[in-house]
Amino acid sequence: MALHAWILRAVLLVILLLGDHVQFSHRLGNALLDNGTHASAAALQWLLMTHHSPALREHANIFTFVLAACMGSFIDLDHFLAAHSLSLKDAVSLPSRPPFHATLALLAVLAVVFALTRLHPPLRTWGWLPLMAAAALLSHHLRDGYRRGLWLWPLPYSLPLTYPAYLVLEMLLAPALALLSGPRALAAPARMPMLPVRSV
Fold first, then answer.
1. CA distance linking residue 117 with residue 121, whole number of Å
2. Of these four, 51, 135, 156, 185, which has the most CB atoms within 10 Å of its CB?
3. By the 8 A CB rule, do 164 and 171 touch?
4. Residue 96, pLDDT score
5. Which residues contact 162 (CB under 8 A, 6 or more apart)?
6. Whole-angstrom distance, CA of residue 18 vs CA of residue 62
7. What are 36-68's pLDDT values in tens digits?
8. pTM of the model
């Protein structure tokens, strides 16, 4: 299991390096490569989390891997929403960051959702979902962060992120999030035993 995790980390690192440094002559080619890198990294982060956590392993299937990839990819739709246009040129030429790239606000929302899955017993079996979303979306934010910094809205500044720091954080993201997936957070609520009723 440990060997598999290291192999997955190596694959993730190669995908990130290729996605960060390969360039095409056309804007569309670069956009597709960038988005594909985000999607692949998100799916691999989720796969790594299932390797690190027995509680998450039972949710490891093709559906959740595709869902993680979609989360890592579709977040960039906010570029088009902010541009009020379907033009790729407009979407990549925004004067400010689009809303789904606000890292601090995203963390706050995911923390609240995860807390609800822990505090409300009927939701405990869904505790894996905000963790998967955190892996997919934070992987995307970290990759964008080395170029433009992590956007800490509503605070009025961004946190600069060097390229080595971004790669290290990408490698640590899955095991760090997996620590939150204890059995108490993700297990179905236990039923109270029925006491025998004696007839009078």
1. 7
2. 135
3. no
4. 86
5. 146
6. 24
7. 999 999 999 999 999 989 889 889 899 999 999
8. 0.86
